[in-house]
Write a structure and sequence with these properties.
With 270 residues, this protein is of the alpha+beta class. The chain is built from eight helices and 13 strands. Strands 1, 2, 3, 4, 5, 6, 7, 10 and 11 form a nine-stranded mixed sheet that branches.
Length: 270
């Protein structure tokens, strides 16, 4: 392809993905249509989608890191993490009430550790220095979805489809103490939901620790000259601690955390 044709294809795929997101529809994976489609092109599409969302008034407030949990890579036929933006339109506090489930195809729920940044971290920082850049830590739920039928896709498809991010619900925002930093790799979580669903995981499943996942994101962003760097005030959700659980309106979900000074959370969908 010529450079002009490549740019036209990127714009076309970005428009197609955003329209599918807005309408709740699904599309064929891009890799099915273009076997040469790769991660670099995928992030070019994702950046174009972000520009379109900003142009219509949405504001990026953070990032999500996806597929940091190595235990689920074989389940989704992926080989490593990816990332996408979190928007002011997709960020919510859990609070005490119920939440209307976003109208997204094949939604799933992921329990995660979320950081709020007080200063801009840099690629190559030690975990101690990374922790010094964090203002607060929260346990939250991310709602993810699949732009592609049957949750069948490649790593590149996920990156292009804005990291499969649908919504992020935050529990209490608490100070990141030294003890919590030390507990992050070791704690365990139980996710329980309607119809007797029960899933388990631990902090070490997320690239050995949610802090390690943050470092991985920084290295990834540093390698992409078109990706905005992390800045003070942003939030970063570090990836699911369990497999993603299919959800529907009427579901009630709770978590229990053991071995860390963070409370479990609950969410009701209508």
């Amino acid at each position: 392809m010529s450079d002009t044709m490549e740019d036209a294809a990127i714009k076309a795929y970005a428009a197609e993905l955003l329209e599918a997101y807005d309408t709740g529809n699904q599309i064929a994976p891009i890799t099915d249509r273009d076997p040469a489609f790769d991660a670099e092109t995928a992030y070019s599409i994702a950046h174009r989608v972000s520009a379109l969302r900003e142009a219509r008034g949405e504001r990026r407030v953070g990032r999500k890191i996806g597929f940091t949990n190595r235990t689920i890579w074989p389940l989704y036929d992926v080989t490593g993490p990816m990332w996408g933006p979190v928007w002011d339109t997709t960020l919510h506090d859990i609070g005490e009430g119920s939440h209307r489930l976003p109208k997204l195809p094949e939604p799933r729920l992921e329990p995660e550790i979320v950081f709020g940044l007080k200063s801009a971290p840099r690629a190559g920082m030690s975990e101690t220095d990374l922790a010094g850049c964090i203002d607060w830590v929260s346990h939250g739920f991310e709602v993810v979805f699949s732009s592609f039928p049957g949750w069948r896709f490649s790593d590149a498809d996920c990156a292009a489809a804005f990291g499969l991010h649908g919504a992020l619900y935050l529990g209490p925002r608490l100070p990141l103490t030294r003890s919590v930093v030390e507990q992050l790799p070791r704690f365990r979580v139980v996710l329980e939901g309607s119809r007797g669903k029960r899933l388990t995981g631990c902090g070490a499943d997320v690239l050995d620790s949610p802090l390690t996942a943050l470092g991985h994101l920084l290295n990834t962003l540093a390698a992409d000259t078109d990706a905005p760097r992390l800045s003070a005030g942003e939030i970063v959700t570090t990836g699911t601690l369990t497999d993603a659980a299919p959800i529907k309106p009427g579901d009630h979900w709770t978590t229990r955390l053991d071995g860390i000074d963070l409370p479990g959370i609950k969410i009701n969908f209508i």
